[in-house]
């Protein structure tokens, strides 16, 4: 029997970074790659052998073509992508080091995706051979049209019986179009089965803060996030599971990394990884989300194994340049099993 697809939806952007650790004001050239939360999830899942379609809107010119080719090389389904508008969104990334944090500048106003409207995508057709729909809080932050299209999608996904996962993914620089994150996300998360967030997303979006943690100083104790998970489930009774990534930021080059998972009864914690040096931390949460989705599809109710796989996937992403976790199942399972020495494989 043919495996049903996972569908992800959001904006993919052209990512431009100064080479190495140069600052923006020092740059005379930029390294170009493509990235975006939901596309990163799609690429990771495709690498794990999961059939996946990525849905977005791209301009009908060569930059749009190049972006599609980039997705296609990893095995991501691109035939549900619609074309229109005039430009692809861009984000500039200055990579931090030691005590200097990374910096992001967005240039995505009036992009093809920012100008998307409800009715442009035939969601019934998109979901006809799918079992899972994944979206993030970045999408409704981009524009009112993107928020309305996302709502259209989650309602249809719910009607058609798909599992719906949402990464809360708060981006303060994006919520500029009129409504707050809390207002918009409260309506959208009502249709989700699984909520995912980092150590402060629930606080930034819904005002739900883990007691006694200090994110800025890297103190994020796993057990404190049981409170967050329970409060999210109280606010959204539709939620069946809540997962949270736990990043301890010692410096831009040195993080700790773990995660928790709650199913309404049991609270699971994963081992903590010490990541130093970091190659590229962008997309760590997306790798975690992809690991969760793969784990739920593959391991079912073995939730400790699901969480261990997801956290290991997010850990390994920090070793890979670019937005996406380009990993094999074997590599992730090796780390999940505690084999973290990084010895050469010959």
Q: What's the level 1 CATH class?
A: Alpha Beta
> What is the terminal separation in angstroms?
37 Å
Average pLDDT rating: 95
How would you spell out the order of helices and strands?
EEEHEEHEEEHEHHEHEHHEEEEHHH
3D architecture notes:
It is a single chain. This protein has helices spanning 37-47, 62-72, 123-126, 138-142, 144-159, 181-188, 201-206, 225-235, 284-299, 303-317, 329-336; strands at residues 5-9, 13-17, 31-35, 52-55, 57-58, 82-83, 90-94, 103-107, 130-136, 163-167, 194-197, 241-251, 254-262, 267-269, 273-275. It has 346 residues and is α/β, with parallel strands linked by helices. Strands 1, 4, 9, 10, 11, 12, 13, 14 and 15 form a nine-stranded mixed sheet that branches. A four-stranded mixed sheet has the order 3-2-7-8. Helix 1 crosses helix 9, helix 9 runs antiparallel to helix 10 and helix 10 crosses helix 11. The mean pLDDT is 95.
